[in-house]
Amino acid sequence: MAKPVHLEQSHTYSTGVEHAFDVVLATPLPEVFSRRYAAIPAIREVRDQGGAWGTVGQSRTIVLADGGTMREELTQVDRPHSFGYAITDITGPMKLLAASADGLWTFDAAGSGVEVTWAWELRPASPVAALVMPVFARFWRGYARRAMEQLEALLPV
Question: pTM for this one?
């Protein structure tokens, strides 16, 4: 099995840690990931989510604009510091690249604001997929930068 790849992007916002945590955790994914970046599609919708997102063990199905899907399960919630999730059951074009991923959002005080970091531990689907991970990592960072820009509008003081 190919070695996991660590991907990470951070951005600082002029709002409080608790506010940022609450907004990022609760915002519907299509509002944050509404635009494709290179080979990474936008999120079109979320299905099968029971209630407000925020309880460890909850799961949902993420539907991508290219028709692919993935299962997301919330694995940890430590308000206001972090929340984590596991991505499994990937279908569609992404299945060729990724077997699974563990995601983590962290929220750290930064001066009078908050530094928000989004990270993935991505497990390539195959040794061949591992060879293209440097290219995928560049795409992912661009996708993550766009997501951070979307959050800017959602995180007023």
Answer: 0.94
